Amino acid sequence: MTRLSLGKAWTETRAILARDGRLLWPLGLAFMAFPGLVAGQFVPASPADAENASGGALLVLFASLLLAFVGQLSIQWLGLRPGERVADAIGRAARAVPRLFAALMLVSLPLAFLVAPFLTVATAGGTAAAGAVLAIVFIMIIALFLLVRLLLSSPVSVAERLGPVAMLRRSWQLTRGNTLRLYGFLLMFLALLVIVSGAVTGVLGSIIILVAGQPEPWSASAVLVGLVGQLAQLAVAVPFTVMLARLYAQTAGTAEPTVPHAP
């Protein structure tokens, strides 16, 4: 069992970003921010709109999710291997995405089926609603525990080329004894994401709406507000992704890093 050092991982992350930000930030823009911006124009504005969402809109949302996975895994691979070409990192990430997606489905689908009946009871109201809400909270606690123990699945998927089940087992093994530190790491970045995204979008988004009017899908106002939001999220997501790779490097016992510098 390796005792994780968040401070060491953050120091390595800062060094990698300082030297190879010219590679990592464009990857984030191309595979995370821009697809997210496009997909955001298809997000239903209300539950009623969600029921009427077309298959094409759902396909766009799914494609943006897959592209985000490719971007994240590419950034993680460059954070783990010095001298790797960006094109090779993208190719390796694309090959890892199906295995990672399958692993995530193995965990998320059972949880979704488990919570669905309680959600139906809770939304219907009545005397059983309170018990259903407690059951949902309990399931969410379990889901959060699983999220932390499986947090290293993404760097494992791109670094070790394991199958979906073996990938989950490997992450479970690597995170043993470091659950509380990983809770802290995850909560810190989630809080930072909410604060940065909320502050930037709240201030700049309000100005954009004041100048360009209320956002409608594909209007200038909607695109600008969406772009601001995506850039704010990217400012947190890229350091988080690199740091996750460096935490994996610690637990996996890989060699001390040199900063990737491939064109």
TrEMBL record:
Signal peptide boundaries: none
Keywords: Membrane, Transmembrane, Transmembrane helix
The keyword Membrane belongs to this UniProt entry's keyword annotation: yes
InterPro entries: GlyceroP-diester-Pdiesterase_M (IPR018476)
Domain Glycerophosphoryl diester phosphodiesterase membrane: 132-253
TM segment ranges: 23-43, 55-79, 100-122, 128-152, 182-212, 218-240
Keyword Transmembrane appears in the UniProt entry: yes
Protein's name according to its UniProt entry: Glycerophosphoryl diester phosphodiesterase membrane domain-containing protein
Species the sequence originates in: Sphingomonas arvum
Lineage of the organism: Bacteria, Pseudomonadati, Pseudomonadota, Alphaproteobacteria, Sphingomonadales
